[in-house]
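Re: that chain you flagged

S.,

Sorry for the slow reply, it's been a week of failed gels. I finally had a moment to sit down with the sequence you sent. For the record, here it is as I used it:
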Amino acid sequence: MKQILIVDDDTSVLSLLTSALADYRLASAYCGADALTAALRTGPLDLLITDFMMPSMQGDELIGRLRQVQPDLKVLVLTGHTEILDTANLPWWNSERHLTKPFGIVALRSVVAELIGPP
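Prediction finished late last night. Pasting the structure tokens below so you have them in one place:
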């Protein structure tokens, strides 16, 4: 079964993602530090789904730290700040899959299946 780590500081988003992706093996975290601990506990990840704006560690830093251990880690970034990140023309942003909040469950499941396949 495919392992996904979901990271978001909004508990309602975590709950929504957990329900929408319940047929995958899931771990979740509220912030980057908790995500690093969860990643160590779960072992290799098939996918990281992370918010961009979070307390103490933004999504791009979390991605970089997890990729130090697992360079081929697939990532889906969730954010309500797409227009700012698009305008900033950041290399990491342009190379990662992302969804703008609010997003639909069908769109989420479609991107996840595209990145790592069905459950």
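What I noticed first: Strands lie at 3-7, 25-29, 47-51, 74-79, 97-100.

Talk soon,
D.
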